[in-house]
Design goal:
With 538 residues, the protein is mostly beta strands. Among the domains are: 101 residues, Immunoglobulins (Immunoglobulin-like); 92 residues, Sandwich (Immunoglobulin-like); 84 residues; 76 residues, Sandwich (Immunoglobulin-like). The protein is built from no helices and 41 strands. Strands 4, 5, 8, 11 and 12 form a five-stranded mixed beta sheet that branches. Strands 14, 15, 17, 18 and 19 form a five-stranded antiparallel beta sheet that branches. A hairpin with a 2-residue loop joins strand 37 and strand 38. The termini are close together.
């Protein structure tokens, strides 16, 4: 049965014409249920190979031995220059200088890709797995001097005597200026506000730039696209005081060929604030030292705003927030290091719909004690399972993780906050069963909570990892439910490149067992392997 079969398209050098079109890998919302993603990270001894992902269509990976052929390494090289302009008029002086930029190669959410920075002469050296349909981001260090560029459908062949995988040498034009002023609803300018530019049709943004002391800014973009200008939430004011402003996004368009520029002004709304004070304690009445507080706006007219602050060692927290409705979340930090959040000793406190119209001093906030989760893990035949790693991850807040291991009697226990958590049981060996997942709602839990969490049997999945040089030994192989982004199994290949695991396979809503393709209509994704590809057989 064929799981994947791809041929690598011929490589073409960089062309600005390629910046405008082409299909990119599917969005996460378009991934068919039942799709399996296999991440393979070669051992350090495999110096000629880079981490790569393989995508298997629903139904294509059962009852077969999979074959994964890893692509050889390719290199994206070149010299990047940029035309810089002093002034906005048609007679403005210009110069061509080496471009200081970050260059990123991506292929959807797959491991294929990499990132590198040009040197002082504009030279780039970026190794990636040989692949087709890369997206390349050229992100100048100064958004005020050069526009960022986004390229799709870039093919990178393996390095050989004929040259590198892709020659990216080019000179970027100065593009078009985007200028304007950031003000509030009272017409006051906002100095030192941080902003960035993003393409409206692609997941790429510029470097951050700031307004001057009078609230003015200027940056440069590539004409011919829809853009979004966005603020970044806080302003560094005089005497190092940090003031919050909403995250405001303003869309605009620069027509193709228009280098005259466009004015985009930003109104961040009413910056009048009210003071909110609270004192945080644990359930025994002692201060929760250095509590962390997150305030999220629910009602601002101009944008969104999230303010996070650390309290004092006596549990006191002071926030200055614009008038409106807010959600407050409070959780403890490590008492000895306020920069380290340690969540095992208390449960988050949350209040939604808090209306702030004037200064308010909230009653003491008490962080409830955690609950003690415990249980016994069994393997599918009913015997108690020793050495199983049980992990609980918070579904909200900072998604903090708590973990323990079952003893020789299969027993386990750990303290977790009384909130929603995701549990995972990882067997010591695949012979004991498959990774097992469960969700718990612990908001109303008592001091102790008994949990049934027995390992599922799972389905055997095996494969062989090879490269053009033969088996890839001792590589880390991770299998994911791609649609749900859930880890299903982890293993190392043996000396022959083989691995075998048991997997609680994701449910599929399709019966398709045919060859996966790259069509946008089917939502499938191309790994860009050489002709061997994932063949479903060694």
């Amino acid at each position: 049965m064929s799981a994947l079969l791809f041929s690598l398209l011929a490589c073409s050098n960089f062309s600005p014409d390629n910046a405008a079109g082409g299909d990119m890998p599917m969005d996460s919302d378009d991934i068919p249920p039942g799709t399996l993603k296999i991440d393979i990270r070669p051992a350090a001894s495999e110096s000629g190979l880079l981490p790569q992902s393989f995508i298997l269509a629903p139904g294509s990976y059962e009852d077969v031995e999979l074959g994964h052929t890893m692509s050889p390494t390719a290199t994206i090289r070149g010299t990047l220059l940029a035309t810089t302009v002093q002034g906005w008029s048609s007679a403005a002086a210009s110069a061509t200088l080496p471009l200081q930029a970050v260059v990123r190669a991506t292929h959807g959410s797959l491991l294929q890709g990499g990132v590198a920075t040009t040197d002082e002469t504009g030279n780039l050296d970026l190794p990636v797995p040989a692949n087709q349909m890369y997206a390349l981001e050229i992100l100048p260090a100064s958004a005020t001097a050069s526009p960022f560029v986004y390229l799709v459908d870039q093919n990178v062949l393996a390095d050989n005597s004929a040259g590198v995988g892709l020659d990216l040498s080019t000179t970027l034009s100065a593009g078009a200026p985007v200028y304007g002023r950031v003000t509030d609803s009272a017409g006051e300018h906002v100095a030192l506000a941080s902003l960035h530019l993003c393409r409206a049709d692609a997941p790429v943004c510029s470097a951050t730039f700031t307004t001057d002391k009078n609230g003015w800014f200027v940056a440069r973009v590539d004409p011919g696209y829809d853009y979004v200008l966005a603020t970044e939430g806080e302003v560094r004011a005089e005497k190092d005081v940090s003031l919050a402003i909403p995250d405001v996004a303003v869309p605009f368009t620069v027509e193709a060929g228009d280098v005259s520029g466009v004015e985009v002004d930003v109104n961040v709304g009413d910056r009048t604030t009210q003071r909110v004070s609270l004192r945080v304690q644990t359930d025994d009445g002692s201060p929760a030292r250095y509590p962390h507080v997150r305030a999220t706006s629910e009602s601002l007219a101009t944008g969104t705003l999230v303010v996070e602050r650390e309290g004092q060692d006596d549990g006191q927290v002071v926030l200055d927030l614009p008038v409106g409705t807010w959600t407050l979340e409070v959780w403890p930090n490590d008492a000895d290091d306020p920069d380290v959040v340690a969540r095992a000793d208390a449960t988050p406190w949350v209040v939604e719909g808090l209306r702030i119209a004037a200064d308010v001093d909230l009653p003491k906030v008490t962080l409830e004690a955690p609950t003690m989760l415990s249980g016994v893990v069994h393997v599918p035949n009913g015997k108690r399972a020793a050495g199983v790693t049980v992990t609980a991850v918070e579904a909200g807040f900072g998604e903090f993780t708590f973990s323990t291991v079952t003893d020789e009697d299969g027993k386990w226990s750990m303290s977790v906050p009384r909130t929603d958590v995701r549990l995972t049981a990882v067997p010591l060996t695949s012979g004991d069963g498959a990774y097992t997942h469960a969700s718990l709602a612990l908001a109303d839990a008592g001091e102790t909570t008994e949990v049934e969490l027995d390992l599922v049997e799972g389905t055997p999945v095996s494969g062989v990892v090879t490269s053009q040089d033969g088996p890839v030994a001792f590589a880390l192989v991770e299998l994911y439910d791609y649609a749900a982004d859930v880890l299903l199994a982890r293993a190392l290949t043996d000396a022959d490149g083989a691995y075998s695991v048991r997997v609680d396979l994701p449910e599929s809503d399709t019966g398709d067992t045919g060859t996966q393709d790259t069509g946008a209509d089917t939502g499938t994704q191309d790994t860009g392997d050489t002709a061997a590809g994932d063949t479903g057989a060694p």
